[in-house]
Specification:
The chain is an alpha+beta fold. About 35% of the residues lie in helices and about 25% in strands. Strands 6, 10, 11, 14, 15, 16, 17, 18 and 19 form a 9-stranded mixed sheet that branches. A 5-stranded mixed β-barrel has the order 1-2-3-5-4. The protein has a 3-stranded antiparallel sheet with strand order 7-9-8, with no helix packed on it.
Length: about 500
């Protein structure tokens, strides 16, 4: 609808608002009586129908009071049908002059608009066509809507408006509300799974003096009272490990992390992540934790461990496929990264195969780029990719007998990188050396290397038991479960470019 038309409709509604006030009608009352939701009325009618009621009766002899937003109106002289929606669904209401009186029916016809919130009381019944309905005997205005709902008959389709004004998206598109209900249930299911296995949920700082736990560019801020620069966390890892050191043996956090990077269908600078750490465990234990949590959540929320994502049927039942990065790269490119162990040799092998890879400055990063380009898109069924180069994994423990690699995995579903896990490095002296190498990279111009964290090193010097740790993106998990190709579809208020 053009802006001129919208302004005209808004002016009409403002005029109605003023007229209501002059007549002593409060267009925004503070409270209302409600006995039933729309879903409860539908359930009540269904139970009544199952009870084999006497011939000729249309519904139970019971009055209900419910509230909702007017979504549609169909006028037929001195009677009208409308649909109202609340948080549980929609239901039809039947409004007549006989039941409300001439003044009450005129109020419904002339003073109310689609989008207004109303409260009604009446008898639930089935119409002659069998539609569940409430025959209204009393009606009141709860909140006057001053703007018309978007494209009321066809739903809201404009992506820009849907993301910038999510409240309109939720009003107009029932399937969108379903996505965010599913998101809430997925998070609840993960919490139940971890709580039942002895993990405790904790909260760690979002504002941090040193960012760490991942390779990412941080957001910076300034604390005026402390006169110091602080960072929004890029991961929860180093604080959760401090809790393992302090004696909590199983901890997790579901919270926001922030990475000052680009926007895409799979990246939002503010995202939700689950991180979990378990003492006396390794990355094998973390694999089991990941596959069991995903399968449990899918069964709880979707009632199945089989999902469809972008046309692919995917099975989440454990065990998932396990393959080393070396095997995966060899299979897809013909290059054995275990044999080409230097940067120059790997560059030469890539050129000989005629492969196109974004140039990188180290062997480990070139391996990672080769993997991302040629292997990652093939990983549709759940797959753990094991044993990453040490150069790109400063927080993971070295793989015994293979000094160029560490006990680290990432897991992939539907071609999406979903999570990352380590057998955690717990030797403070080696951790210092790894951080020192990262610091040198930062000083040489690398933007996403890990900074030195002396406080974390000091904590490690008090001793951290063998530990497995894992983190995965909740947003991408919801994308998979709800078959959404864009992360913006599963974040209520995604970050967007300026208009």
């Amino acid at each position: 609808m053009k802006q001129e038309g919208l302004r005209g409709l808004r002016q009409q509604r403002l005029k109605k608002l003023e007229e209501l006030k002059k007549r002593g009608v409060d267009p925004y009352p503070a409270r209302v009586k409600r006995t039933h939701t729309a879903a409860q009325v539908l359930a009540l009618l269904e139970e009544w129908r199952k009870s084999r009621p006497p011939e000729g009766e249309k519904g139970p002899d019971e009055s209900v009071a419910l509230c909702g937003r007017i979504m549609s109106v169909r006028v037929m002289g001195k009677a009208s049908f409308a649909h109202i929606a609340d948080g549980t669904g929609r239901i039809q209401i039947y409004v007549t002059q006989d039941n409300l009186g001439e003044e009450g029916y005129r109020f419904f016809r002339k003073d109310l608009d689609i989008g207004d919130f109303i409260g009604v009381e009446g008898k639930p019944l089935f119409t002659q066509t069998g539609e569940p309905t409430v025959s209204v005997s009393w009606l009141t205005l709860l909140a006057k809507s001053l703007r018309p709902l978007p494209e009321k008959w066809h739903g809201l389709k404009d992506v820009e408006t849907r993301y910038r004004q999510r409240y309109l998206d939720l009003i107009a598109n029932e399937e969108v509300r379903g996505i965010f209900l599913a998101r809430s249930r997925i998070i609840s299911a993960m919490r139940r799974f971890l709580d039942e296995r002895g993990f405790i949920e904790v909260e760690t700082p979002i504002l941090q003096p040193i960012y760490g736990g991942a390779a990412a560019r941080p957001f910076e801020t300034y604390h005026h009272a402390l006169h110091r620069k602080l960072y929004l966390r890029i991961a929860d890892e180093l604080y959760l490990k401090r809790l393992i050191i302090g004696g909590f043996e199983r901890v997790y956090e579901i919270g926001k992390d922030f990475r000052n990077e680009g926007l895409s269908t799979v990246h939002n600078p503010e995202f939700t992540q689950l991180e979990a750490y378990q003492a006396y465990a390794d990355y094998e234990d973390m694999m089991r934790l990941a596959e069991e949590t995903f399968a449990y959540a899918a069964q709880e929320v979707l009632r199945t461990t089989k999902i469809t994502y972008q046309g692919n049927e995917i099975g989440l039942t454990p065990p998932w496929r396990r393959v080393t990065m070396r095997q995966a790269v060899l299979q897809e490119t013909g290059i054995d990264i275990g044999e080409v162990g230097s940067f120059s040799a790997l560059k030469e092998a890539i050129a000989e195969k005629g492969l196109e890879v974004t140039p990188k400055e180290t062997w480990g990063k070139l391996v990672e780029e080769l993997f991302k380009e040629y292997v990652e898109p093939t990983l549709i069924q759940p797959t753990f990719i094991l044993d990453y180069p040490k150069e790109i994994s400063p927080l993971a423990k070295e793989k015994p007998g293979e000094p160029r690699f560490v006990e680290r995995f990432e897991f992939f579903i539907g071609g999406l990188e979903c999570g990352n896990a380590f057998t955690e490095l717990n030797g403070p002296l080696e951790q210092r050396e790894r951080f020192a190498a990262e610091k040198r990279a930062l000083e040489s111009g690398e933007e996403v290397a890990h900074p030195m964290d002396e406080d974390f090193i000091q904590a490690l010097e008090y001793g951290m038991p063998p530990t497995g740790g894992i983190g995965w993106g909740v947003d991408r998990m919801v994308m998979l479960f709800c078959d959404q190709s864009s992360i913006r579809e599963v974040i209520l208020f995604p970050q967007l470019r300026e208009k």
